[in-house]
Each structure stands twice: as structure tokens, then as C-alpha cells.
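INTERNAL AUDIT FORM
Audit reference: QA-55
Scope: verify that the stored structure record matches its stored sequence.
Auditor: D.O.
Record contents follow.
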Amino acid sequence: MDKLPKIGLPIIFAVVFIIFLLFKTAVTIDAGKAGVMFKRFGGGVDTSTTYGEGFHIVAPWNDMIEYKIRQQSISDKMSVLSVNGLEVDVDGTVWFQPKADMLGKLHQEKGRDYISTILMPAISAAARSVVGRYTPEQLYSSKRDVIQNEILEEVRREVKDQYIQVNRVLVQDVTLPSKIKDAIERKLKEEQEFLEYEFKLQKARKEAERQRIDAEGKAAANKILSASLTDKILQEKGIEATLELSQSQNSKVVLIGSGKSGMPIILGNQ
């Protein structure tokens, strides 16, 4: 009876130790994540292997560091200067993800806080560089898509060798000081009204030109017709018409040679 507790105590310790080892060595990497192995007695970070989703056995003296590798986004509102020195607030979002096959290098050289130490400064520098090329009017109106693409290219250049993949940049809003915004809106309204006036004026000019050409065409046609109608032709046409009328069944009186031009005059009733 006295020996049983002495034998049972080591067994209990052994079971607890085995359970501890199981919890320590068994690692499950969740969906959308990947792992980097830190080998305490094997040279530090294993940069050659990225561990994917699922169950992994890790030696108790090693550590598995997990990273999100699915696409992520960060949003920020930055105050930057336009080409003429005016302060502009740019509200944007960037979609990114770490390069899974380079995760060991990312952990070794940049660390787990790479978003704040590498990516955010790159975005800020790119936004300042791109926005600084444009006037407030361009930023406010038609340059939004161009600015987005240029910021994307700038960020990609900034993080080219940083093991980060930048997928897209979205500029959601560009906020100007209220006085500048009102002045731009007034200018745009005046330009729109001017374009409408120019359109109406151009339309009126085209209509006047059309009427002039139409009138000139009619005048030219009348001139040609008048030139072709000689006295002889008129007499021949008159004779033809007289013959047709004389053959009708209606009562009439024909006076030969009574007209000023020698044309017959027909008198009669129905």
C-alpha cells in the first residue's frame, strides 16, 4: 500500500509531460495562413520552407510563427501637398499580401510588423509623390483613375524587394479646402455654361449656313430655268396647251392671234 503512491507519482508526471510535449509539438495552421519555422538549435529562421495550412509536428525547442497570406487591406487618410503647395486630404485603401514563398525572408529581414515599418511608409511616400504632380482642379475632377494607377505603380516600386505583393490601390476621396472646392465648382459650372452657349451658337450658325445654301440653290435653279425659257419655247408650249384645250368637250371660243405674243386666247365656260 505504501509503494503504490510512490510508483503512481512518476507515472502521473510522465503522462503530464507527454501531454505537454504533444501540445508543444503539434501545430495547426489555419486557413489563409502560412508558417515560418524558427529553429533554436538549427540556424534560426528556416528561409527555405514555408509551411502551409494544416497539422505540423514541431520539435519542442523550435517555434512556428504564423502569418496571414490571404489578401488584406489597409485604409488611411493622408494630408499631402498638390503641385502648387495646397494641402489635400487623400482617403485611400490598399490591397496587399505577403509573398508566401518568401515568407521566411520576410520574417527574418522585416519582422511581423512589416505593415507598419515597410508598407505604410511606402504608401505614404507614393501618395505624396503622385499627388504632388497635379493641381487641385485635376485632383478634384478627371484624374482619379490616373492617380490610383500611378500610386499603385509607385508603391510597387517602393516594395519591390521587400517580399510584399501589392494588388490594388483605391482612392476613395480627395478633400480640398472648402474655399478652393467652391472656387473649382464655380469654375466648372461657368465652363459648362460656356460650352452650352458655344453649342447653341454653333448650331445657329450651321442653321443659318444651311438656309443660305438652300436659298442660293433655289436662286441658281430659277436663274437656269429663266434662261432656258425663250419666247419661242413659250410659244410652242402655249400652242401645245391650246391644242389640248381645243380638243376638250367643254364649250369655248378660240381667238386666234389675240394675245400680246400672238398666242390664241380661249374663252369659254364649263
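Auditor finding: record pair retrieved intact. Residues 178-228 form the longest helix (51 residues).
Action required: none
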